[in-house]
Design a protein that fits this description.
Number of helices of chain B: 8
Number of strands of chain A: 0
Structural class of chain A: mainly alpha
Helix content of chain A: 55-70%
Radius of gyration of chain A: 17 Å
CATH class of the largest domain in chain A: Mainly Alpha
Distance between the termini of chain B: 98 Å
CATH topology of the largest domain in chain A: Arc Repressor Mutant, subunit A
CATH architecture of the largest domain in chain B: Beta Barrel
Largest sheet of chain A: none
Number of helices of chain A: 8
Order of helices and strands of chain B: HHHHHEHEEEEEEEEEHHEEEEEEEEEEE
Order of helices and strands of chain A: HHHHHHHH
Oligomer: heterodimer
Largest interface: A-B, 32 and 28 residues
Strand content of chain A: under 5%
Structural class of chain B: alpha+beta
Chain lengths: 164, 487
């Protein structure tokens, strides 16, 4: 669960604070678990909601940013040690601005739909969709820069351009 | 719009990478979670400070003794040295020497006598006899003071009777007063007092039986036989005159004790009804909890101090502050953490407390001894009755103690009697205890030592009423106390 919190948090300390709050809720409300569904899934939902509430409480959400910002995300490859790819990908996700990162985590990884995300983050559903699109594009460019992903093939772009 | 297939693949890629990522929190995170959920274990600062204060009071009370004999001792020694100087310098005849020596001793001891007289008058004594130290006593001197007349008399002359016993007779104006029996006469002896085996016969003198070497032969006259050995102790100045009883006293005590507990199931049988689905037993089968739960008493203690008000010579009311540490041990077995259920009942509705337990009542991986512990602070209010209160005393005491538990580590059995779980959230912080004790005491002046057995019982169950198993701790100990009269 700490890795879940780590993807939402600004730092490891914030992630541990989120984890602490989340598990306190879990232990104090464990009697409300009704054995419907997976116990891990129940815990994960509580942790995710705790992370969102933590970000809201400390006003960690920034305003929307343009795609061009991706060029200014400091990706210092030389400072990142040689670690497994999973951690690299998570670190790349954490490089995103907090708003983008949150929507990406909720939609792409946690599996919430945009309607649920809009209710949790108290934003419009369209805002959630646009945020996700921008977040994905930014993340993709970061992963390409770090050579974790290959550049998407040109033909798809040409087709899209032609269709326009 | 992007390629949907690519989008799904990208999301799957992110999901897979995120799921493979593992992180582990540091220990302090779990400790904080434990503290928030179960309460932080407080450093027993209050316990240590209370024990330190009580120990300091005990040591200070025992170690500091009033110096009441200094004046008498010092003055009497000066008299002895003066006497030897006079003897050396005098050119008088033999009789004159004796008379001069007698006078000089009187001159010096008058200063002491004036000081002592003043003390005695404030304590309402009638008369006292002062025997000077051995050096001048060889001159057969004695000084007899009537404090009400505020005068010192000349030393009575000492003559030999037919049996060659020395007799002190009065030859002064206060003779008549000395013919009555006096109730509060005291003797003052110096600490280095010693006499040869002369017998002295006094008339019309009463005395208290404070000195073992003084014997009364039931006649107006009495003999003082002074053995070669010195008296055990001289009467301190503070004891001159009437003894006035103190209304207040201060007590410090410590009671090592053994803590037992009595477990009682719900007498109406609602316990078995709640757990009918969980218990392997039939619903009407009565289980003796004290056989199911393997607990053993452990050693605890009580430390405290109290202030007593003596309403009479044999009756006192006491109140104070007391720290209690009570604990008992539970035999259990370590097991991997597993869900544990405790059924509660409140207002005719059944609630369930789901928790996690790492200890089993039945066989597990390895045996362990769980220490069930409570730290309490109590304010006992009670009475103390001493039917016998002389040199030795015997008394009975009882008190009610409102108690607050400020640190606890209780373990409760789960509904199926299979696991032990933390019961802190169900435990009452406030409770009522009562104690009854009997003791034997030994009075030494201002102090009384006492020792005796004490029984302490808790009235309300340890856990809240919603927990069906009721626990009543019982402590049996030996109380050792020291009481000092306060003036």
């Amino acid at each position: 669960m700490l890795s879940v919190c780590y993807r939402f948090a600004q730092s490891r300390e914030d992630a541990e604070d989120m984890l602490q709050e989340g598990f306190i809720k879990i232990f104090t409300q464990i009697h409300t678990f009704q054995n419907k569904g997976s116990f891990e899934g129940w815990i994960r939902r509580i942790i995710v909601h705790t992370c969102i509430n933590f970000l809201k409480k400390y006003k960690k959400f920034n305003e929307n940013l343009e795609l061009g910002y991706a060029g200014y995300v400091a990706v210092k490859e030389e400072t990142m040690p040689s670690i497994m790819q999973a951690k690299q990908v998570v670190e790349c996700i954490r490089l995103l601005p907090v708003g983008y990162r949150t929507v990406l985590n909720l939609y792409a990884i946690e599996g919430y739909n945009h309607k649920e995300i809009s209710e949790m983050l108290e934003i419009e559903e369209s805002t959630s969709r646009s945020q996700y699109t921008r977040a994905k594009a930014m993340l993709e460019s970061i992963l390409v820069k770090k050579k974790i992903l290959e550049k998407p093939e040109e033909e798809f772009r040409l087709v899209a351009f032609y269709k326009k | 719009m992007g390629n949907r297939l690519y989008d799904n693949e990208f999301e799957d890629f992110l999901k897979n990478q995120a799921n493979q990522h593992r992180m582990y929190p540091s220990d302090h995170v779990w400790r904080k979670i434990q503290g928030e959920v179960h309460g932080y274990r407080k450093w027993p600062a209050l316990t240590i400070i209370a024990v330190f204060i009580i120990a300091a009071l005990v040591v200070g009370t025992i170690a500091v003794k009033p110096h009441t004999e200094f004046v008498v001792q010092q003055k009497v020694q000066e008299a002895a040295s003066q006497q030897s100087k006079i003897n050396a310098a005098s050119e008088l005849t033999e009789n004159g020497k004796a008379y001069a020596g007698h006078l000089s001793v009187n001159n010096i001891t008058r200063q002491t006598i004036a000081k002592v007289t003043e003390t005695i008058q404030t304590n309402e004594a009638h008369e006292l006899l002062i025997l000077p130290p051995s050096a001048s006593l060889a001159e057969d001197d004695a000084t007899w003071i009537n404090t009400t007349a505020k005068s010192s008399v000349a030393a009575p002359s000492i003559t030999d009777n037919d049996t060659n016993e020395k007799i002190v007779t009065e030859d002064n104006i206060n003779t008549a007063a000395h013919n009555t029996v006096l109730q509060d006469t005291r003797f003052i002896f110096s600490n280095n007092f010693s006499l040869s085996n002369h017998g002295y016969q006094f008339t019309n003198t009463a005395f208290k039986d404070e000195f073992s070497f003084v014997r009364n032969n039931n006649s107006p006259a009495f003999n003082i036989e002074l053995a070669a050995s010195r008296p055990a102790a001289s009467s301190p100045l503070s004891k001159i005159g009437k003894k006035s009883s103190s209304k207040l006293d201060f007590q410090v005590y410590v009671t090592p004790s053994i803590s037992y507990r009595r477990l009682v199931d719900d007498v109406q049988g609602s316990l078995t009804k709640s757990y009918v689905t969980a218990l392997p037993y039939a619903a009407n089968y009565v289980v003796d909890l004290n056989h199911v739960i393997q607990h053993r008493p452990a050693v605890g203690y009580e430390v405290g101090f109290s202030l007593g008000y003596n309403a009479g010579k044999k009756f006192a009311i006491r109140t104070g502050v007391q720290f209690n540490a009570r604990q008992y041990n539970i035999d259990a077995f370590v097991h991997s953490s597993e869900p544990a259920t405790v059924a509660l009942s409140a207002d005719n509705s059944n609630l369930v407390l789901n928790t996690v337990s790492g200890f089993r009542n039945i066989d597990g991986s390895r045996p362990i001894e769980l220490k069930n512990r409570y730290y309490e602070i109590a304010v006992p209010v009670g009475i103390d009755w001493r039917p016998v209160n002389k040199k030795f005393a015997w008394g009975i005491s009882a008190a009610i103690q409102p108690t607050y538990t400020f640190d606890k580590e209780p373990f409760i059995i789960t509904s199926n009697y299979k696991n032990y779980a933390d019961g802190s959230q169900l435990m009452r912080n406030w409770n009522i205890n009562a104690n009854i004790e009997t003791y034997l005491g030994y009075n030494t002046g201002k102090y009384r030592w006492q020792i005796g057995p004490q029984l302490r019982y808790q009235f309300l169950p340890t856990m809240a009423n919603s927990f069906p198993i009721r626990e009543y701790p019982v402590d049996l100990g030996i109380k050792l106390g020291l009481i000092r009269s306060l003036r």
